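Ligand: oxalic acid. Inputs:
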Amino acid sequence: MNILYKSEPERGRIWAELLAERAPEAHFRQWPDDGDPAEVEYLVAWQPPEDLRPYTSLKVLFSVGAGAEQFDYAALPPDLPVVRMIEPGLTQGMVEYVTFAVLGLHREMPRYFRQQREKQWLEHSSLPAARRRIGVMGVGTLGEAVLQPLLALGFDCAGWSRTPKQIAGVTSFVGTEQLNAFLARSDILICLLPLTTATEGILNADLFSQLPPGASLVQVGRGKQLNHQHLLDALESGQLAAAVVDVTSPEPLPGDHPFWHHPAIWLTPHIASQAQPESALTALLENIRRFERGEPMHGLIERERGY
Ligand code: NDP
Ligand code: OXD
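Predicted complex:
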């Protein structure tokens, strides 16, 4: 098994050590040391090398992340399987981040932190979780996982996806026809959609206007889904109360971008979750085994669908 890793070098070093322990028969190289490109069978990358033609034995392209929209599919061989990362460490990171964000918004922490800066000791009435309606856009691997602790905390939960879902305690809304009904009952909206032609720019003024007045947003999908000016306008008008934003376009934001110092925005630098080398390697090896046995791999991208 010949693996070429092309991503963050420090993490690559950890992958190399782990692989030497767990699959000593594997040949692991880290970009730019790709040895003989014709021998590479499995490429693990955020971005592949620009010219894939020398990689004549390439069998699968694995994304190091849960998203795989960053690849230029037109430049990839049309029959090359592309696989996104599904692994428990990455899922757990997202569960932690979204739980933190929802609790912060539910308990109005942006408002109380603003009061702290203004030396205001002022109490507002609070809502029980059962009366706070959570809406998760994208009920895939991550969306379904983040719903579990929110259900356990007693929130009133719904999800929106392309195809219907059956998750105990979660109301399922499907497709563009049911988007408005879903939004109308989402006090805290969480975006966990992949970036596709259908989801680019989806978090815009029109969508915000369908939410209950004073709703909040957690944006952990992809930067290009959010219209920055529309978010600022919705916060200014009070249509939205606050937002937790982990992904933006561009990343990083320029130094003079209003998100940096906006009192109602919590901004983080795309850290909601990341693959953890230990568990990600287990997932990679399992997928390679599945591929070699002719079984379907977990997280295979359907190119037509865009995710
Ligand atoms: P999945 O592919 O498992 O889930 C995607 C979900 O989105 C599915 O439920 C799918 O519906 C739904 N969906 C896609 N397109 C549409 C549409 N047009 N209308 C309605 N629903 C749609 O992805 P993951 O859960 O693994 O990851 C989701 C995204 O999270 C990633 O693509 C990435 O952008 C982001 N991410 C962000 C990270 C961060 O650190 N900020 C870290 C990791 C991921 P259906 O189930 O019906 O197919
Ligand atoms: C991912 C990410 O896709 O970190 O894994 O955004």
